[in-house]
Target: Ankyrin repeat and MYND domain-containing protein 2
Amino acid sequence: MSATEEKPAAKEQQQQQKPKVVLTADQQQIFDRISKNEVSELKLVLGQFKQSVDFVDENGMTPLQHAAYKGNKDAVQLLLDQGADVNSGKHEYNYTALHFGALSGSVDVCVKLLLAGANPNAVNSVGRTASQMAAFVANHQVVATINNFVPVKEVEHFTKSPASDPLLPVVHLEGFHKFVMQINIHPVRIALNLQKYGLFGEDLKRLKKALDEMMEREMKRRTEVNEVMAFKFHYLGYFLNEIAKCRDYFLARKDKADKEGTGAKDQKSLDFVELFAKRVLKLGKDGSLEYIEATIRECVREFPFRECTIFRQVVTQLASKENPACALEIIKAAINGQRGFQDTISFCSSCGEEKPDKKCSKCKEVQYCDRECQRLHWFMHKKVCARPVAPTAGAQGQTGGKDAKKEIDSAEISEQLQKLVAS
Ligand SMILES: [Zn+2]
Ligand SMILES: [Zn+2]
Model:
């Protein structure tokens, strides 16, 4: 008799003594729907489900953690709407929903979890945060998203302070919040984002003031000083100021032209984002981006916290003779971390965004996010954009056609290679 009593105990030990979990039929169904990515069915079950959705399965995982691990942003949203606690769970290795989201590689899932209050500093049983786990599996976009995340409350108070004259009108809270979290810190992208988030209606100097306060706050935290974010806020503020100066100059010139009735044709076709982009993207005689090189150096010099690691690291790299990296690359690496295989990633020639969708239809040699990015870069690109001769029938087309074929082939090959890497 005693032998039969011991058997189940031994079996349990084999299963690493997991606590026995008995799920109700509804709970089981919720897990099943999530595991099959059946979002509309999940919605139906949740509609009937009146208890807390923070129950766990035999692995100590909540439905939200499962949905995050699946990288299913709709399921994650449904569970959050149902009141799921984003930091809840009893996973045996202390993984949080954000850890699972980070491993799934879904930026959308991670943003939803962070907005719902997921703690990015929570560590698993091997002492790693969600961002570190994402880096481990090379989900770089996720790493950057988590590291650049700013809780809404950090910017919300600017809509109330100073009480008499708040730095940030409520209507611009959402736009400004997105602006401070931007990952791509290319100056042209900064200008385009200001436009995209409707912030050009705002006094840029006041936004810079808010960013300066955010920088100070990061450096003066009692726990977890975040000097990387402090530097980023300084950098964004510095370029806001540069863009504001460019706008003032543009408006003054336009005013003058309007009064004198000169240059009207020239002014009409130009907006100040374009003027700024021209400053940024103009190549110097040595082929470098002179404005970016000089402005970033000035920006770094003005960073007020000279004792911190990021400042010394950036200064050393900018001064290094052996390091051929341009200033923007150095800053990008300092803020978003080093990453390998840079060569295999394509970038927008205008704003530096990763993996842009479009390419120059004439030469297919350069890539852009969209027509706007292409427009802003055209003044430089038109000098080098090769137009392949269309293959035509007849004697005249013979040699031209052959050359054109060669060009198209090489473009096709590079396109294929790009697809290979992307997939
Ligand atoms: Zn772009
Ligand atoms: Zn071209």
